């Protein structure tokens, strides 16, 4: 059993490939699960109390995690100490930063691998507890589902077929082992080890596996990917907010337009909506620094900590977030005041990022007043002073910057004089024809993230999307002494054609953005000017006029993004004109939408029909299985279930002969009936069949009476289906249409078993005994069987 559990957990963990980059995480995962499983097996072989066995599994998990990850800080290499707890806090913080700031596949740093190994070890202990001491092996699949769902919600392509198949095989092995060592007492077998149960488990598991693979074809929303996730299935709801960096790639790869935001602005061109600033870089990831100690409450009046120039361009923007949900407020940069918000909000003086303290952006309508420095290439080129008015945190870099990043920055900026010239050189290099925009290349190449190792791979492959281009420019700018950070939010989007009336203003043109417009761009700081945005990502966003190099005319695209453009293709010169509306999902494809709707309705109808017919199909299968091999025991079980379906269930305290007598004297069998009538003759045949089945069962169970010859096994096998058919025909003749309908489509004998099966988790949670559950199932069965329909 321990081997089966270990195989199932490690098989399910194969789905983590793609969540982590490479396979370095697999060795500690195998070690952790193996040690935990071996400990549980040894303790159970020594017949230790089940509670102590589970406790031993937890101790083994602690020791192996300590030995693997905290050996230098531990006593004797595997016993935790005070230093171990300090390092544990650092690991958990590192794992949290990875979750917040990296996109899958993430670099397998010690923090995130520790969390994964601890989680797999806990799942192994949970499955063992469910399968062995609690005696509920079927529910152990919930633990495997936990492992599968996590990568299914993170990876664009889903959990993956290898992990799903391995988990399914492991689950079948768990069921087979549980039946081998603890067979169901209700099954007829002469072997204490439940012969044939492993085969039965394989058949059941195989059917479940086929259903799991075919189910996505019938459920609307599954278009690509592997069960239990499809490319259009969003487990967090259709209005998921923008989580900095980690969901950015998934949002861009999402074909739907979830999280739509509309805004109207007094600007002469559509604007970027900025949600959060990513400015903390430790070498592995970029992460937001919320600066809790310096945050200020209430964005009604805002001003940055650094000086602004005298000449500012003031704008007004009205935003409606709709169903978009995020803790960070999307606003044009740089906001000076935000009015109309509901809830409590705070802002950071260094980044002007606005965050909800007790609310989110969902269903918010607000007005943003912003002031931008009047920036030109001439003013930026005049500023070559070393920045002194902002924190040096924006220029810090770790010591482990790869040589390819250093050499690239040095080569690209060679001959450039001043910060502006260096910034333009980096932007032009990244927008050159050497680079291409691709959402899939980083995923396929295993460098979809924002750490230094990812950046090195990106500069080699020269293909990626906005996260990679923005990270590359920000890091290379810091290498050249220019303060930098990354803004995460939305590119300008497209015009809706509508206008919004604002008091004291001319009607403002309205624009719309959604998940497909999610974007990241670098911002560089220039002394006396402030933070200035650049656009190094080809075919995305708008290159501002001050960053448009006249020499690069006819080069890479500087228009609003067009996802239909080939990566690196030439595009027209910059334009501030409104971009024509981009067709959303279903626009211009009415035939396809109608066909999809018909397909979904048909699939839903077929699924509903299968669900309604499933009790009848299962009951028919049980009857056919019992009568195919024949035999008095199986025929007697079918007679009892058949009588239950028609309202005469057996009583546990009565003997077979008493049950047969009660059944023969019941109205459902038509007794007493005049033998002269045709129906009476048929009912008499049913009573004779009941008597014959009872006699065969008694002789099989208790032995034949003295002097009475027993029928041969072949005679009993051939006679059983005929007798059951006669009894069933008599039942149907004497039943009302409602009773016959219930017996065929919702048979009480089957429904009571399903009720008992479904009550297993609740019985475990509520402490209900098996006997109490059977009594409850029997009460439900009698109640359901007693329902009568009379016109």
UniProtKB/TrEMBL annotation:
Region feature Disordered, mapped onto this chain: 547-577
- Locations of Low complexity compositional bias? 566-577
InterPro entries, per the entry: Bact_TGase-like (IPR052901), Papain-like_cys_pep_sf (IPR038765), TgpA-like_C (IPR025403), TgpA_N (IPR021878), Transglutaminase-like (IPR002931)
> Which GO BP annotation is one of this protein's?
proteolysis
Keyword check for Manganese, yes or no: no
* Domain Transglutaminase-like residue range list: 458-538
Pfam families in UniProt: DUF4129, TgpA_N, Transglut_core
| UniProt keywords, alphabetically | Hydrolase, Membrane, Protease, Transmembrane, Transmembrane helix
GO MF terms listed in the record are: peptidase activity
Give me the segments passing through the membrane: 25-43, 50-70, 110-127, 134-154, 160-181, 202-222, 597-618
The answer, when asked if Ubl conjugation is one of the entry's keywords, is no
What's this protein's name? Transglutaminase-like putative cysteine protease
């Amino acid at each position: 059993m321990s081997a089966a559990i270990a195989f199932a957990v490690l098989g399910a963990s194969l789905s983590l490939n793609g969540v982590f980059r490479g396979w370095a995480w697999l060795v500690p995962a195998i070690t952790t699960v193996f040690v935990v499983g071996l400990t549980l097996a040894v303790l159970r072989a020594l017949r230790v109390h089940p509670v102590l066995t589970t406790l031993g599994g937890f101790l083994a998990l602690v020791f192996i995690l300590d030995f693997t990850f905290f050996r230098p800080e531990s006593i004797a290499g595997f016993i935790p100490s005070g230093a171990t707890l300090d390092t544990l806090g650092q690991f958990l913080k590192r794992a949290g930063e990875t979750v917040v700031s990296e996109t899958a596949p993430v670099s397998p740093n010690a923090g995130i691998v520790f969390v994964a190994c601890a989680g797999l070890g806990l799942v192994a202990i949970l499955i063992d507890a469910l399968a062995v001491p609690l005696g509920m092996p079927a529910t152990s699949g919930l633990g495997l589902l936990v492992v599968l769902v996590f990568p299914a919600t993170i990876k664009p392509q889903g959990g993956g077929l290898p992990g799903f198949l391995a988990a399914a095989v492991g689950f079948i092995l768990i069921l087979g082992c549980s039946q081998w060592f603890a067979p169901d007492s209700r099954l007829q077998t002469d072997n204490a080890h439940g012969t044939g149960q492993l085969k039965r488990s394989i058949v059941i598991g195989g059917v479940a596996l086929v259903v799991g693979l075919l189910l996505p074809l019938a459920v609307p929303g599954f278009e690509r990917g592997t069960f239990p996730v499809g490319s259009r299935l969003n487990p967090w709801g259709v209005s998921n907010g923008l989580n900095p960096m980690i969901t950015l790639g998934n949002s861009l790869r999402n074909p739907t337009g979830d999280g739509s935001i509309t805004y109207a602005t007094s600007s002469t061109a559509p604007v970027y909506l900025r949600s959060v600033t990513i400015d903390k870089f430790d070498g592995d990831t970029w992460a937001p620094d919320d600066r809790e100690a310096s945050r200020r409450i209430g964005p009604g009046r805002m001003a940055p900590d650094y000086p602004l120039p005298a000449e500012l361009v003031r704008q007004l923007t009205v935003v409606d977030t709709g169903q978009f949900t995020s803790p960070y407020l999307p606003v044009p940069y740089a906001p000076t005041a935000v009015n109309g918000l509901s809830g409590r909000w705070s802002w950071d003086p260094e980044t002007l990022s606005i965050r909800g303290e007790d609310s989110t952006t969902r269903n918010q309508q607000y007005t943003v007043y912003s002031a931008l420095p009047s920036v030109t290439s001439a003013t930026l080129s005049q500023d070559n002073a070393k920045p002194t008015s902002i924190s040096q945190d924006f220029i810090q870099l770790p010591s482990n910057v790869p040589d390819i990043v250093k050499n690239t920055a040095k080569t690209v900026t060679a001959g450039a004089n001043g910060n502006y010239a260096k910034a333009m050189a980096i932007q032009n290099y990244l927008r050159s024809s050497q680079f291409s925009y691709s959402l899939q290349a980083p995923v396929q190449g295993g460098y979809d993230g924002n750490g230094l190792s990812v950046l090195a791979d990106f500069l080699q492959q020269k293909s990626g999307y906005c996260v990679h281009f923005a990270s590359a420019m920000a890091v290379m700018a810091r290498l050249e002494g220019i303060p930098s950070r990354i803004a995460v939010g939305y590119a300008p989007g497209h015009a809706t054609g509508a206008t919004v009336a604002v008091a004291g203003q001319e009607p403002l043109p309205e624009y719309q953005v959604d998940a497909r417009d999610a974007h990241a761009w670098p911002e560089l700081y220039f002394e006396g000017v402030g933070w200035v945005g650049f656009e190094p990502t080809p075919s995305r966003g708008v290159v501002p006029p001050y960053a448009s190099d006249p020499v690069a005319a006819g080069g890479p695209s500087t228009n609003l993004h067009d996802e239909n453009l080939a990566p690196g293709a030439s595009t027209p010169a910059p334009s501030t004109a409104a971009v024509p509306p981009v067709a959303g999902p279903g626009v211009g494809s009415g035939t396809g939408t109608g066909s999809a709707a018909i397909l979904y309705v048909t699939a839903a109808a077929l699924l509903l029909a299968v669900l309604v017919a499933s009790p009848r199909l299962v009951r028919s299968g049980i009857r056919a299985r019992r009568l195919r091999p024949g035999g008095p025991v199986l025929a007697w079980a079918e007679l009892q279930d058949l009588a239950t379906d028609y309202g005469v269930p057996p009583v546990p305290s009565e003997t077979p002969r008493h049950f047969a007598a009660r059944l023969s004297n019941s109205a459902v069998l038509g007794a007493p009936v005049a033998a002269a009538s045709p129906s009476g003759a048929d009912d008499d045949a049913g009573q004779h069949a009941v008597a014959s089945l009872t006699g065969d069962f008694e002789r099989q169970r208790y032995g034949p009476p003295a002097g009475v010859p027993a029928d041969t096994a072949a005679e009993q096998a051939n006679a059983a289906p005929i007798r059951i058919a006669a009894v069933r025909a008599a039942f149907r003749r004497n039943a009302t249409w409602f009773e016959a309908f219930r017996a065929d489509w919702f048979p009480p004998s089957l429904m009571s078993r399903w009720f008992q099966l479904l009550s297993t988790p609740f019985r475990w949670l509520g402490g209900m005994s098996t006997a109490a559950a059977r009594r409850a199932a029997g009460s439900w069965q009698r109640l359901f069987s007693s329902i009568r329909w009379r016109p």
